[in-house]
């Protein structure tokens, strides 16, 4: 209900106006006997419309309007005056006064004036509600799109038009320097994922990726006004403040800063490595503070290991993988390498295997030696135990073949292409990690999932264009695009014609 405040120093004038308004209009009406009281009442009543007498003791009507207009710019005002031509007209117009009524006026004139201003209020409220609904829809879509942008940037599955448009829509400027933080969340705290996204979003300088097992990647854009370490530590502490007192396992790895956008993947790898020793008192670790690794994680040997482990795990060849680890252990022993140093070497290999499994969507504990071994026999037993745990987790997870799974995912996308789909949503439906779903598409179909989703949407758009009654805006929304301009850019990228031009050329003779 529209709220109205009547301000006049004469009780009879206030009561008379209220009776007239209530008789003809449905309003929530309150009264104030002077400008000072009106200002105080507006702080809690917040009227949509104020009938303001000009001549009152103390603060005049125009002075009260001037103060109220500064605090409540959307409030409308109707002046009440005894003069048909009054010298305050120009000042009143500057203050945003919408109309005036004379003392005395006919009932019909009062109602006509009131209805004119009330119609403006109704129209503005309707527009505001529509804007709120639109913003809410866009915000929900952005939350979905944000995870996709992170996945595409970190795992090199980039769809150019999609990425550029989403970056614009996310409204967080990509600064020159950027780095990645990788959050580990314990199993019993996964419900905190939404709260983590909210914390990052409030900083205005980061994008949160999809949860991948226990890992949540976060791309952070450098703030020029503070140091890298201060910015990273501040954000880390804000995220870690979500941790409950009895929860263990929260940890954040922080990669180095890089300028080119294509180097962000390197910062991500560093952030992963920085989570290796997550059982330490301080719950965040900078990659740059870590001791030198035995494996060179950016040499061909690391990439070769990663690819080899991935292929063996994809084909479920655990015997070969376990033999690989055994061979390395035997080699170190033949070289009379210190057993403690060998334990560190093997810890890095086990960590790499667990990371590959995690990328595949396997829920696996990060391997940590429970003790410092005192000989190679104990080292083999401890290593074998952790490999068996990972093998069990993998086999439990691996119930469907990749071929069957990709067909299920394709079918799901086709059926739900008009919805706000993301890797996160699709991966939950498939029971896989977002990264693994993306890899499956690239390997099995030669395209990323965004390309497949875009093709589904655009094919449906072309069919809908046959209906001449449908506008392009309606078609864009019906196929899953909230922004018609974005739909137009995607369509033009695919067919080298705008949607309107394509419709004219193809369906209109």
TrEMBL record:
Domain HTH araC/xylS-type: 407-505
Domain called Response regulatory: residue spans: 3-118
InterPro entries, A to Z: CdaR_GGDEF, CheY-like_superfamily, Homeodomain-like_sf, HTH_AraC, Sig_transdc_resp-reg_receiver, Tscrpt_reg_AraC-type_HTH
Keywords: Coiled coil, DNA-binding, Phosphoprotein, Transcription, Transcription regulation
Coiled-coil region list: 315-342
A GO biological process held by the record: phosphorelay signal transduction system
4-aspartylphosphate modified-residue sites: 53
GO molecular function: DNA-binding transcription factor activity; sequence-specific DNA binding
PANTHER family noted in UniProt: ARAC-FAMILY TRANSCRIPTIONAL REGULATOR, HTH-TYPE TRANSCRIPTIONAL REGULATOR EXSA
Protein name: Response regulator
Provenance organism: Jeotgalibacillus salarius
């Amino acid at each position: 209900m529209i709220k109205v405040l009547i301000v006049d120093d004469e009780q009879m004038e206030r009561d008379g106006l209220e009776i007239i308004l209530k008789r003809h209009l449905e309003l929530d009406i309150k009264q104030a006997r002077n400008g000072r009281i009106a200002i105080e009442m507006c702080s809690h009543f917040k009227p949509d419309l104020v009938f303001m007498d000009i001549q009152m003791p103390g603060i005049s009507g125009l002075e009260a309007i001037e103060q109220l207009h500064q605090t409540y710019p959307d409030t409308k005002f109707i002046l009440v005056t005894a003069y048909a031509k009054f010298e305050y007209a120009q000042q009143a117009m500057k203050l945003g006064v919408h109309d005036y009524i004379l003392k005395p006026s006919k009932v019909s004139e009062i109602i006509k004036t009131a209805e004119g201003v009330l119609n403006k209020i109704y129209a503005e409220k309707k527009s505001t509600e529509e804007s709120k609904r639109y913003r809410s829809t866009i915000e929900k879509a952005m939350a979905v799109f944000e995870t996709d942008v992170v996945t595409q940037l970190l795992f090199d599955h980039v769809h150019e038009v999609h990425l550029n448009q989403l970056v614009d829509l996310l409204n967080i400027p990509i600064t020159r320097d950027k780095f990645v933080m990788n959050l580990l969340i314990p199993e019993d705290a996964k419900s905190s994922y939404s709260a983590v996204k909210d914390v990052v979003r409030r900083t205005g300088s980061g994008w949160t990726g999809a949860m991948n097992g226990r890992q949540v990647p976060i791309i952070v854009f450098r703030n020029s006004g503070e140091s890298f370490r201060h910015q990273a530590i501040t954000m880390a502490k804000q995220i870690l403040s979500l941790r409950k007192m009895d929860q263990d396992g929260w940890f954040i790895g922080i990669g180095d800063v890089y300028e080119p956008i294509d180097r962000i993947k390197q910062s991500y790898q560093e952030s992963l490595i920085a989570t290796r020793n997550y059982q330490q008192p301080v719950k965040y670790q900078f990659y740059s503070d870590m001791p030198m690794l035995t494996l060179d994680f950016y040499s061909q040997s690391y990439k070769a290991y990663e690819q080899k482990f991935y292929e063996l795990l994809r084909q479920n060849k655990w015997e070969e993988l376990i033999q690989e680890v055994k061979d390395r252990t035997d080699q170190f022993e033949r070289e009379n390498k210190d057993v403690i140093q060998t334990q560190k070497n093997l810890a890095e290999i086990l960590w790499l295997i667990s990371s590959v499994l995690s990328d595949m969507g396997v829920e696996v504990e990060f391997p940590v030696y429970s003790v410092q071994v005192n000989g190679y026999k104990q080292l083999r037993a401890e290593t074998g135990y952790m490999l068996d745990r990972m093998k069990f987790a993998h086999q439990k997870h691996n119930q469907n073949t990749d071929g069957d799974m990709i067909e299920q995912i394709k079918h799901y996308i086709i059926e739900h292409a008009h919805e706000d789909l993301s890797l996160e949503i699709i991966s939950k439906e498939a029971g896989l990690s977002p990264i693994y779903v993306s890899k499956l598409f690239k390997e099995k179909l030669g395209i990323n999932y965004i390309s497949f989703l875009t093709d589904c949407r655009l094919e449906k758009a072309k069919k809908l264009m046959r209906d001449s009654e449908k506008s392009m805006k309606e078609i864009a929304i019906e196929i899953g695009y909230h922004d018609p301009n974005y739909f137009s850019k995607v369509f033009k990228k695919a067919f080298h014609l705008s949607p309107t031009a394509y419709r004219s050329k193809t369906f209109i003779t």
